[in-house]
Amino acid sequence: MIINHPLLGPRDSEEFVYLGSTDLIDRPTNWEKSAAAEDFYQYQYIRENIAGDIQELWYHEQGDQSWLIVTRNTLTHEIKNVEFAQDFSRAKGRGR
Amino acid sequence: MNKTRYSAFKVLKEALTGHKGWEPTWRDAEPKSDGYDVIIVGGGGHGLATAYYLAKNHGITNVAVLERGWIGSGNVGRNTTIIRSNYLLPGNEPFYELSLQLWENLEQDLNYNAMVSQRGIMNLIHSDAQRDAFIRRGNSMLFADAGCEYLEAKEVKERYPFLDMNNARFPIKAALAQPRGGTVRHDAVAWGYARGASDLGVDIIQNCEVTGFNIENGKCLGVQTTKGDIKANRVGVCVAGSSSRVMAKAGIKLPIESHVLQAFVTEGLKPVMDNVITFGAGHFYCSQSDKGGLVFGGDLDSYNSYAQRGNLPVVEDVCSGGMAIMPMIGRARLLRMWGGVMDMSMDGSPFIDSTEVKELFFNGGWCYGGFKATPASGYCYAHLLATDVPHEVATEYRLDRFRRGAMIDEKGVGPQPNLH
What we know:
The complex is a heterodimer. By secondary structure, chain A is α+β, with helices and mostly antiparallel strands. Chain A has a single domain, classed as 2-Layer Sandwich (Folate-binding fold), CATH 3.30.2270. In chain A, 18% of the residues lie in helices and 34% in strands. In chain A, the strands form two sheets. Chain A has a four-stranded antiparallel beta sheet with strand order 3-4-5-6. Chain A has a two-stranded antiparallel ribbon with strand order 1-2. In chain B, the strands form three sheets. In chain B, strands 1, 2, 8, 9, 10, 11, 17 and 18 form an eight-stranded mixed beta sheet that branches. In chain B, strands 5-6-4-13-14-15-12-16 form an eight-stranded mixed beta sheet. In chain B, α3 packs across α9. The longest helix of chain B is centred in the N-terminal third of the chain and has 18 residues, at 93-110.
């Protein structure tokens, strides 16, 4: 697979480390509340595991060490969009 | 009903009379309008084994197996055919040992030649730390009566002179072997169980995709399929590879990611290895099929996938792992390669459990160890479906174990499915 890095252009997916769905960005912040155990359980262990287009985190370990959000189809491996995780998070209202 | 009994005499008789007396191996059925006691979703090895043991062990014969494509078209047709029971953890080892014992009697039980070959499996050891870990595993196997054999480097070299004993990164220091491990003709497992189940009255319904579940007040009353609605008192899902997709139709999310695993076979060679050799440190395992091809596999492609095909970097990685430990394979040409979709669970271990929906049960999460588990998976799932109680060797395979902190993490890498 070729990942079109927003700054570095087309790069072999072998240069990247795969983490998983972008759901992993939204780590629960309510650790002191009683619902925390359940929220962390859902965050850590339960997966949507969609067959089709998913947004996922790739880390460019052997490149500029940026985190990217790749929109990819899990049935065909076709990559439809690549953006910086930072931009993705800010657009969703996070600080970083 | 199929009454033909296979034997050498039958083969000889048919050979002399023009092969006119053979019957279809199993009965192709259409859904009954008044429904079933149990519907099994998924006509793979595990689903067909479940139907067989439901009928044989529990006398429940009003059973249907629904299969989207043709039976055995999923992972039972796409694996590297290895059987073994060399696990460490108490939640796993007795289960896989039951499976190996069932393999040992499978052909007599089913009257079907599945080519079960107990040629032995050997795990290579490359460091003192790994030696300690494998001896611990060996002790666990001895506790479960699985049997094992510790081999010093000299013995490994004598038995398999083609191994590179002095690889710079992974010198072979010893090995842990399980002489009762081996290989099985994988398709024949699906066909044998289908025949056994069909003979006992189970309906095997192909080209019948489950498109939804009929659930009222938290209770499953049947399934919606491409052949219409079918009623059932109880539904058992058994579709490893597609578990998340199917269970999502019942509104259930699972602790599973789908990943693709590739496998390879070379052109046919003269006999060079009489067992299964695994090079765990380099993610390479290999055996030689009866046709002579070296059958081998390696690591996952590492990204989520539902495609039954992988990418080239893993091909290179697997082949270089093989070359490192077994340099002789360098001149063999690859004949075929293929990919299968794995249910990768969060701890590398499977699930056989009831769900939050009444009368809906789930079997899946087999990671890449599903084939060897086929008989015990069917045996224990049938036990659960028939009695509401998990079989004594499958009590740990619960869906809520992560919530309870009771992981069965054989490899010790935590909830990172692509590393198990």
